[in-house]
Structures are given as C-alpha cells and as structure tokens.
Amino acid sequence: MKTDSKQKWLEIGYDLFGDYGPDGLNIKLISEKAGLPRTNFYYHFADKDDLIEQLLYMHSRMSEDFNTVLKKQLQVFIPDMYKLSEPYVKGFKFHRQLFLNRSDPRFNLVYVSVNISSNPIVLPKIIEYYKLNVPYSVIESLWTTVTDTWYSRFDVNKFEAAYLCGLTEEIMKTVLDFAKTKLFVNSIE
Amino acid sequence: METKYRQLKTAYNNFGQEGPKSLVDSFRSFGTNEFENEGDLLGQLIRKHLINNEIFFLACEKEFVAFPDIFQLLALFPKTLRFTKQIFLHRSNPVYNELFLQLTKLSPSRILSSFCDYYQISSNEEAVNLITFCLESWFSKIDTDHIDGQKMFRQFDGIIKPLLEFKKLAALDNSKARF
Questions:
Q1: A133 to each of A11, A78, A136, B167, how far by Cα in Å?
Q2: How far is B87 from chain A (nearest CA, A)?
Q3: Alpha-carbon dihedral sign for residues B34, B40, B41, B45
Q4: Distance (Å, rounded) from C-alpha B144 to C-alpha B86?
Q5: ipTM attached to this prediction
Q6: Taking CB atoms and an 8 Å limit, are A100 and B174 in contact across chains?
Q7: B63 CA to chain A: closest CA distance, Å?
Q8: What is the pLDDT, as a whole number, of residue A119?
C-alpha cells in the first residue's frame, strides 16, 4: 500500500512535469489529483527536490526500457524509430521539458545522458538510412545538434509516428542540403 | 506616456523572467488605461523587443564588433536575451515560433560577413540557414540567469563545428547520400 501511494505521487508528478516543466510540480495539485493527503508526500519524499530526483531516475529507467525495445525491434530508422516511440508519449513530453529547462544542470545531465545512451542503437540505423559515409564520431556530434533542433521544434500535441517522421526528415533534409551547397571559401567540394 | 513606458518596461522584464504566463499578472496590475487587453500588451512587447534587437545590431555596427566578440556585446543585453529565450521556450505557440524564426534571420550583413570570415565560409543564404539552425540548439543551452559572453561563444562554437566538419566530409561523398 505504501509503495502504491508513492507510485501515485511519482506517476502524477511525471505527467505534470511533462506538461508544465519543473514549475508545474505543485505538491498541493498532485495531492488533489492523487487523492492523497499532503502529509503522505512527506512520508515518501524529503521535499520537492527529492521528488524531482526520483522523477529523473524514473525517466532514466523508462529510457532504458525504450532502448531495449529499440534494440530488439528497430530495423529501418524511418518509420520504425517513430512507430516504436508512439507508446512513449509521456516519456517524450518529459524529455522535452528536460531540454527546455536544461539550464538546470540536473536536467541537462539526464537529457544528454539519455540521448547518448541510445546512440549505439540508433546511429548505425541513421547512417544506413541516410547512406552517410563519414566517421561515427562526426555523426555522433551532428546527431546531438539534430536532436536539440528536433526537441526545439517538437509539438507534443501532434505526437504520432507520421508527424515525428516528418519532423526528422525536415531537419535532416536541411542538414543534407547544407552538406551539398558551396559553402567553404577554400573549396573542398 | 511615461506611465505606459514604465509599464511596458516592467512587463518586458516580467516576460523575460516568467514567459507568457506573466502577461496575465502584468495586465491585471496595469489595468486598461494603457493597454486594451493582454493581446495588445503582447503586441507592444513584441514591438519593443524588435526595437531592442535593432539597438543591439546598431551597437554592433557602431562599435565595429566582429565575430566572436559579438557574444561579449550580447551579454550586455541580458533583458533582450531573456525575452528571446522565452520566445524560444514557447515556440510550440505559432505566434512565438514565427517571431523566433524572424529574430534568428535578422543578422545584418556586416555581422553575417564577420561570422563567415571567422569560419571561412561564403556569405550566402546557406550561411544564414546555418546560423538559424545552430541557434535552435544554442538557445536551449544558454543560461540567461548567468549570462557569460565567452561561455555563450563556446556553446555556439561547439554546435557549429561538428556541422562544418560533417559538411567537409559529406561533401566528399554526397553523391550517395539520401535526398
């Protein structure tokens, strides 16, 4: 029973963080949504920072689960990646809030580490899909910026595979078009 | 007029700190003497922001600031920077998204050419697209509570260099790439 109530605080806290960011984590509001007295919060958590820490841990665990799914089922980057993402809408919303609030080092750390953790699974598929023939380390750095741009443009209200695929294709088209242009003064092209 | 100017300044700073949710409180505390409604207040804040951006660019021109020193100058405009960051954070709202995209394409030609000189790239439309693309990532990284010109430059440089590296290498093999 004790564990159930803690889980309720965490689940509602996770949703609120995903919708409104860290400012949306209001203990009174979670208490009302969970139907639990506020005193119960302090039974499970020292304070709001403690709740945030546990939410970040929960998010990391959820990302590990997602990586396991990707490892087993990701074959062709597009559309598989985003079809497999569909059940994880809450995780994506939470992750977007980490991105938007990354000036807080705790959020930046989890945002970056979760992204890096999926690289060994996702990057080979990206290289294959876009037929990229550049060193892995270069793709890794490039993908970091593409991911930032992706979260910067990502509209959570449109969360479905077709939209997510389109967003990635739009960004990658910009990158690949850019790769084809005459940009350098000292011509390498 | 003075009241309106003062209220606009307060609302501008509040928006930079709290984002769009500050509009409700700002409008409520001002009443309807100077602003018809929240939309009117927002419209005037956006106009003020565009003017502040112009002032920043004029300062760049006047001081002959070249890239990357522009980041040091930018650090002297914390309120303008905070406002833009809030616009960036709320770009899922089409009004703010449109404004953010408009702001990222505003670089005057002298700044653009100094940016291109620094990275040894041609000053063309692609360079503008490149800046816009980098700024989407850069705005997420800057900490507007602790503004530091050198750090902001390092963050920008850390974003653009991998893109340029990718371009160099991909250019050698772009015949096979998708698109």
A1: 43, 18, 9, 12
A2: 11
A3: negative
A4: 10
A5: 0.84
A6: no
A7: 27
A8: 97
Judging by beta carbons within 10 Å of its beta carbon (0-12, 13-18, 19+), is residue A1 exposed, middle or buried? exposed
Structure tokens of B58? 């004029």
Residue B121 in 3-state DSSP?
A: strand
Chain B contact probe: residue of A125, A152, A155 with most B CBs at under 10 A: A152
- Chain B contacts of A153, Cβ < 8 Å? 91, 136
- Residue B78 CB coordination number (10 Å): 15
CATH of domain A2-180: 1.10.357.10
Give first-to-last CA distance, chain B, whole Å.
Answer: 55
CB A156, CB A92: distance < 8 Å: yes
Alpha-carbon gap, residue B115 to B68, rounded angstroms: 7
Q: Which of B46, B45, B6 is nearest to B29 (CA)?
A: B6
| Closest-CA residue of chain A to B130 | A178
Residue in B163, B172, B173 to test binding to A, most A beta-carbons within 10 Å = B163
CA angle (B66, A142, B174) in 5-degree steps = 100
Q: Quick: pLDDT tens for B54-109.
A: 999 888 888 777 888 999 999 999 999 999 999 999 998 999 999 999 888 877 77
Residue A184 bridge partners (DSSP): B121
Q: Do A152 and B127 touch (CB under 8 A)?
A: no
Domains of chain B: 2-171 (1.10.357)
DSSP line for B13-78: HHHHHHGGGHHHHHHHHH-SSS-SSHHHHHHHHHHHHHHHHHHHHHHHHHTT--TTTHHHHHTT-H
CA of A3, closest CA in chain B: separation in Å?
A: 35
